[in-house]
Amino acid sequence: MAKKKNKKINPFILMLIYASLIFALYISLSTWTLVIFGDSVLGTVDSYQSRLDDITSETNKSRTISKGYYFIVDNKEYNGHIIYNSDELWPDLEKGETRSERITYLPIFPYINKPSMLVELDEMGTFSILYHIIAPIGYIFLFSLVDKTNKRTKKG
């Protein structure tokens, strides 16, 4: 007797796909929100690591940078951490050492924040600007494609 093939998408996998697409959409949309509505404040970088990935790679892709930082708005401290690709090379921070850096945050919800160099259009570069314009459209398209596929498998 032939085994009947199950065409339903596993709900766990489906939720994982949806969560990944929503998170990716949040990253791009939060960048544009900070570009348009963000305020800047001087923050403190308290952890920094720069890892060389590929010396022959294209511009701003040779290193993976990891930063931990905090800043104060209305007498309340907010923390942030970010990982991104760049060519910057600072010496890693020793224990207890800090550096100052401008942080851009959303005034109505300061938990949405990034180092200012990642949201200033003149520092982002053409590729990053195009990416943050096109990527949300792509994520919405993929979200609708997965949703359509899921609805079709439920009917069939």
Provide a compact summary of the structure:
With 156 residues, the chain is an alpha+beta fold. Helix content is 39%, strand content 33%.
Give structural notes:
By secondary structure, the chain is α+β, with helices and mostly antiparallel strands. The chain has helices at 11-37, 121-124, 126-155; strands at 39-52, 63-73, 76-86, 99-106, 109-115. It has a five-stranded antiparallel β-sheet. A hairpin with a 2-residue loop joins β4 (99-106) and β5.
How many extended strands? 5
Radius of gyration: 20 Å
How many helical stretches? 3
Oligomer: single chain
The biggest sheet amounts to: 5 strands, antiparallel
Set out the fold topology.
Layout: H1 11-37, E1 39-52, E2 63-73, E3 76-86, E4 99-106, E5 109-115, H2 121-124, H3 126-155
Antiparallel strand pairs: 1-2, 1-4, 2-3, 4-5
Structural features:
3 helices; 5 strands; alpha+beta
